[in-house]
Amino acid sequence: MQSVTSPDSHRAGFACFVGRPNVGKSTLMNALVGTKVAITSSKPQTTRRAIRGIVHRPDAQIVIVDTPGLHRPRTLLGERLDSLVLSTLTEVDVIGFCVPANEPIGKGDRFIAAKLAAVKKTPVIAVVTKCDLASKEQIAKQLLAVSEIAEFADVVPVSAQSGEQLDVLSDVLVRHLPESPPLYEGGQLTDEPEQVLVGELIREAALEGVRDELPHSIAVVVDEMLPREDRDDLLDIYAHMFVERPSQKAIVIGHKGERLRDVGTRARQQIEALLGTRVYLDLRISVAKDWQRDPKQLRRLGFYD
Fold it and tell me: What is the pLDDT of residues 9-64, one digit of tens each?
């Protein structure tokens, strides 16, 4: 049983990480939470939902909202993801603006900094990520460059991979949270439904090794999850993967179905680790033509207005 300090000395609230695609937001959240609650990929725009991860400390509880990367949208899906991010900014206690240490600040970073400047009442922390990939000189230059594009409540360099400065970032986030008892029970690491997490793990497995244009075209829906009849040690999962064109379906299936089988195997291993039980995964793939631009199909796949 986790002991909790009194409400008078305990802080709890919501923080969110924002930034352009592929700056390490999901990896950073996973590192702070201490386990994988958001999928990661080297491909940009992997995150499509506002995933919550919960950091438990004796003196505080940080509910981190990992958001999709802000960008100039080219599809209806992109517009809805940007709308999701902007609405999240008004609902949290502190914002972490993520900029990688190993890349120069560009138009995308300035675009987001301008959006954040419009959020008047919420403190914004600049988080310089991926410091393990940069020299000390690069990090120092980036800290200075970040400080020049906007006024921030704090500027913190971190590495999610090495763990460097994660404790400092956690302390800084906590300072900006209100005094409050815990919002979630001890031990709970996310409030995402299991079916959503399972679908995300399948999509993560599908993202590995595909061509650059394909990740944005993959969506996964978990149709059913239920225990096998007369077996309390086996969970049957029926899931459907959607792509936009027949040529993309062929890429995911691979030669004689080898690639799809590999996706299923890797996804099943991750799902079993998440759920702590053996899993039978029935994974199908279909074409939903131009689903990223079709309002009806977006709703069917869980991306609402």
Answer: 899 998 988 888 778 888 898 899 887 665 544 444 444 455 778 899 999 999 88
Q: What angle do the packed helices 166-175 and 25-33 form, to 10 degrees?
A: 90
> Against a cut of 0.85, is the pTM above it?
no
Q: Which two tokens stand for residue 237?
A: 């999962």
Percentage of the residues of the chain whose pLDDT score is greater than 70? 79
Which residues are within 8 A (CB) of 186 and not within 5 positions of it... i.e. 6 or more apart? 1, 2, 4, 56
Which residue's entry shows tokens 């922390």? 125
Task: Please answer whether residues 191 and 184 qualify as being in contact, where contact means their C-beta atoms are separated by less than 8 angstroms.
Answer: yes
Instruction: Output the six-digit token pair for 7.
Output: 């409400």
Query: Which residue stretches of the chain are H helix?
Result: 25-33, 76-89, 107-117, 136-149, 166-175, 194-207, 246-253, 258-275, 295-300
